[in-house]
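Fill in residues.
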């Protein structure tokens, strides 16, 4: 074997018997990660095999499953539970430890079975436990659950409840490998590791007890009686039942296992079948999305995306908003290689708009019947948070417009500059008038890409983290994707999955927009794939993948109004914004602009009725 298998394990106690002996195996390069991080690493080709939560395996699709090794339970598992001070049916909200998507999906299934619908929100493990009070409970997972096993009056053990419901064992995680990364002979490495680990269970429990202060006998019982490490036929039936139930509620992509050659999604469905499932509202896997982008014909993708639009928006209405994109400063410290707009600190062409200039721009919006300002700019170190607070209060007092302002990158910049938490920055800005957060700066939410095109920008997780905090506060945001730099087809799909996963958690994204990189000579990044054909294909696949995002907007600002009209037949139900001005895209030489009357004409010419909206997609006029 020429190269070591890049292997990811999970640091939880219950996983240790499966990977402990791999640390010294010369054929294995082992690292430990949170289950959620492990799924990302497999998807982004940073690992060959991982001890993957089975819900994440369904989301990715097309993975090889190692037989006879898993982390599961038949009955009480002890380490996955909803804990609370009150009975389950009295809970108004539940904090979700998002470390493992499997446990979150299982919790949703069991709550749905009881016809309970408390508000669910994501939290770090310690935050989830701390949130338990009164009518708020928490889903606790892994070692954190063992640490509070006797702390709360009420505890629903999820594996025990699953067994009561289905009569089947539950599988939480198993070894899954990327396609072609693992041979049949290499599977034995993991089966042998399991046997070695089980033989050391008592020693593992003793070491964990010494570290944590938990009772050794209780931990031995947990590892030998609560946890099951087998993956036989009955466990496989439980796994497939979980996948089926998750798919039925739209929480998971459809998945199955071929018992003779363990692999997800066998036999391979036809492309027509995948398109039909998507059009009917079924959740697609990453493998499905990649296949559609790679193999789907232009018109088939358009028809399927149009079917989704018609199902979600059967009234035949296309919305638009009258607002203005104001770039308050072009001074920026990130030096993105694709950006023709920014100027470095101290540059002669750097600017910060005065109140007088801003006032003229805002008054034009008011005079045109506009309802909102989209306010974004560079990361200007001279502008402190008080400057933004004063600006927002002035804008609200003088003009009364909605404030869709500051991308996650700008909010993170303020947090670092002021040494405040993201939450506190958002609280202060919200108090000053911030209404919603635009989805700018997402580009591609894969860090390999971000390091190449904008190495000073925030990571994917940081961008998503700002949106998570904003959504938890009740703020809404848009989601975007700029493709066509150094990104691959697979990375575009991974971007969509990250948006979808966060939307599952928060329901905070109102809409999705995508466009290709607008190249200008003089920037430091050559153009990749682009063009009208790819744009429409990409938007159509996004509409099919983002089953939980209500709206998709046509990016006519980059593609042109005519293409924007075609986009309405490729899944879009929104025509975006009246463009008083636009500076970032136009800096790269792309300049399109039309007023509200022309937007309505183009919407009607495409066979729809037009409606003005606000940032939350509430109608402000009657369809016409």
């Amino acid at each position: 074997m020429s190269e070591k298998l890049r292997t990811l394990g999970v640091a939880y106690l219950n996983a240790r018997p499966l990977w402990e002996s791999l640390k010294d195996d010369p054929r294995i390069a082992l690292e430990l990660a949170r289950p959620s991080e492990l799924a990302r690493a497999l998807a982004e080709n940073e690992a060959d095999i991982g001890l993957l939560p089975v819900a994440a395996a369904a989301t990715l699709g097309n993975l090889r499953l190692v037989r006879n090794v898993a982390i599961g339970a038949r009955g009480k598992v002890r380490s996955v539970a909803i804990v609370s001070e009150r009975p389950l049916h009295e809970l108004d909200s539940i904090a979700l430890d998002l470390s493992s998507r499997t446990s979150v999906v299982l919790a949703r299934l069991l709550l749905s079975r009881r016809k309970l619908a408390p508000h669910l929100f994501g939290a770090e493990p310690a935050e989830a436990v701390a949130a338990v009070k009164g009518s708020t409970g928490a889903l606790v997972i892994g070692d954190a659950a063992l640490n509070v096993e006797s702390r709360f009056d009420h505890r629903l053990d999820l594996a025990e409840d699953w067994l009561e419901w289905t009569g089947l064992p539950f599988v939480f995680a198993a070894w899954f490998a990327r396609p072609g990364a693992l041979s049949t002979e290499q599977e034995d490495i993991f089966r042998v590791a399991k046997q070695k680990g089980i033989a050391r269970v008592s020693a593992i429990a003793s070491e964990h007890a010494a570290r944590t202060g938990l009772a050794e006998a209780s931990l031995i019982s947990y590892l030998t009686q609560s946890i099951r490490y087998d993956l036989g036929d009955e466990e496989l039936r439980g796994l497939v039942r979980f996948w089926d139930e998750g798919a039925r509620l739209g929480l998971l992509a459809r998945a199955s296992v071929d018992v003779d050659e363990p692999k997800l999604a066998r036999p391979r469905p036809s492309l027509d079948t995948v398109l039909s499932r998507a059009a009917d509202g079924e959740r697609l896997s990453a493998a499905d999305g990649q296949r559609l982008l790679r193999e789907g014909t232009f018109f088939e993708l358009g028809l399927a995306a149009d079917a989704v639009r018609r199902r979600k928006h059967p009234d035949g209405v296309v919305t638009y908003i009258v607002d203005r994109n104001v770039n308050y400063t072009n001074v920026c410290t990130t030096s993105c290689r694709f950006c023709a707009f920014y100027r470095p600190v101290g540059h002669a062409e750097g600017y910060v708009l005065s109140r007088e200039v801003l006032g003229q721009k805002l008054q034009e919006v008011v005079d045109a019947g506009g309802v909102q300002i989209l306010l974004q700019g560079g990361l200007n170190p001279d502008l402190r948070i008080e400057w933004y607070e004063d600006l927002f209060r002035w804008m609200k007092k003088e003009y009364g417009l909605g404030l869709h302002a500051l991308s996650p990158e700008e909010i993170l910049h303020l947090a670092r500059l002021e040494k405040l938490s993201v939450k506190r920055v958002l609280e202060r800005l919200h108090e000053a008038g911030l209404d919603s957060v635009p989805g700018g700066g997402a580009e591609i939410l894969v860090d390999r890409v971000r390091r190449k095109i904008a190495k000073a920008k925030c990571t994917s997780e940081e961008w998503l983290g700002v949106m998570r905090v904003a959504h938890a506060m009740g703020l809404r945001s848009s989601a975007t994707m700029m493709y066509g730099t150094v990104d691959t087809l697979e990375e575009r799909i991974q971007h969509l999955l990250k948006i979808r996963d966060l939307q599952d958690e928060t329901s905070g994204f109102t809409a999705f927009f995508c466009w290709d990189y607008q190249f200008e000579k003089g920037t430091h990044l050559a153009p990749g794939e682009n063009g009208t054909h790819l744009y429409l294909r990409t938007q159509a696949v996004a509409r099919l993948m983002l089953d939980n995002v209500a709206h998709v907007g046509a990016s006519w600002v980059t593609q042109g109004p005519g293409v924007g009209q075609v986009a309405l037949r490729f899944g879009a139900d929104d025509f975006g914004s009246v463009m008083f001005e636009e500076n970032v895209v136009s800096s790269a030489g792309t300049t399109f602009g039309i007023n509200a009357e022309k937007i309505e004409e183009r919407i009607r010419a495409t066979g729809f009725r037009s409606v003005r909206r606000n940032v939350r997609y509430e109608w402000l006029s009657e369809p016409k």
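The longest strand covers residues 64-73.
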